[in-house]
Amino acid sequence: ARDVAKIFRQGTGMFSAARHVRAVDGVSFAVPAGGCFGIVGESGCGKSTLARLILGLYPATSGDILVDGRRLADMGRRERARLIQPVFQDPFSSLNPRRRIRDIVGLPLAAQGVGGAEITSRVAAMLERVGLSAEMAGRLPAQLSGGQRQRVAIARALILRPRIVVCDEPTSALDVSVQAQILNLLAELRRDLGLTLLFISHNLAVVEHICDEVAVMYLGRVVEHAETDALFRAPAHPYTRALLASVLTPEPGRGIPDVGLGDTYPDPANIPPGCRFHPRCPIAVDACRTQVPQPRVLSGRTVECLLA
Ligand code: SF4
Ligand code: MG
């Protein structure tokens, strides 16, 4: 991703001014082939918008997303589908309730012009690959459990043998015991198929489990990007620390103050001046209200904080 931005224009009423929501506000990162890259932040930070941009579901306002040096924007829909596939949060709403599993998983193949008999055999093999039995092909989504439905969504994502899978909160709608099974399945598929994973979550504990690197997003920016171990061992941005404090039990000596973020996420149509985190930052100084922190590289990580 190279300086990617997405601005939504809302409110076109005659008497109300249009709002410009800077959902993604200049994001850059690189993911090595076969890597697992986590994107973390509270709801409203732009992570799902970023996922949809990478999936080509809508165009970026500016900047580029490239795979092997080729712009996604220059590829056709079919080519993009063979390269990048999604797994979304809620397998209940993302699977058509009136279609049988065979047709749901086989749809991407049908869209590429593959014939019926081949679809049936490839779907059966893929269902087994994700830990389901081939006879589930004849069932409807409502006849499956939440975890089974998410396995179906993963089978559908993998049926074209894509190189990249973008998972947006793939386990958030599932019971805790099932979450671990799905995370383990994704890790195993990544290893066996050489997949590159983008893993989007509001929960840092989930990405710690599976990702090599993590980018922390706040109001459309990546405020810290580091290897997962380094991020958890020594978070450099006050926002990363606050997020970590919210998922970890306080451990003396770990250097993570208990920072309460509160419930109210700021309005992405009204980004604070200076450092966009300053209204919630527990260590803000005067300069933070006026100076925009630039990304700085500090011992292998990138941080946007004046005091880091
Ligand atoms: Fe906090 Fe200032 Fe750093 Fe922003 S620049 S995160 S307000 S200390
Ligand atoms: Mg989301």
UniProtKB/TrEMBL annotation:
PANTHER family: GLUTATHIONE IMPORT ATP-BINDING PROTEIN GSIA, TRANSPORT ATP-BINDING PROTEIN. The complex is composed of two ATP-binding proteins (GsiA), two transmembrane proteins (GsiC and GsiD) and a solute-binding protein (GsiB). SUPFAM superfamilies: P-loop containing nucleoside triphosphate hydrolases. It comes from the Bacteria. Keywords: ATP-binding, Cell inner membrane, Cell membrane, Hydrolase, Membrane, Nucleotide-binding, Repeat, Translocase, Transport. It comes from Limobrevibacterium gyesilva. Its EC number is 7.4.2.10. Part of the ABC transporter complex GsiABCD involved in glutathione import. Responsible for energy coupling to the transport system. Its main location: membrane. PROSITE patterns: ABC_TRANSPORTER_1 (PS00211), ABC_TRANSPORTER_2 (PS50893). It is found in: Cell inner membrane. Belongs to the ABC transporter superfamily. Glutathione importer (TC 3.A.1.5.11) family. The keyword Transport applies. Residues 1-244 form the ABC transporter domain. One of its GO terms (biological process) is transmembrane transport. It catalyses: glutathione(out) + ATP + H2O = glutathione(in) + ADP + phosphate + H(+). CDD domains: ABC_NikE_OppD_transporters. This is Glutathione import ATP-binding protein GsiA. One of its GO terms (molecular function) is ATP hydrolysis activity. It is a peripheral membrane protein. The keyword Hydrolase applies. One of its GO terms (cellular component) is plasma membrane.
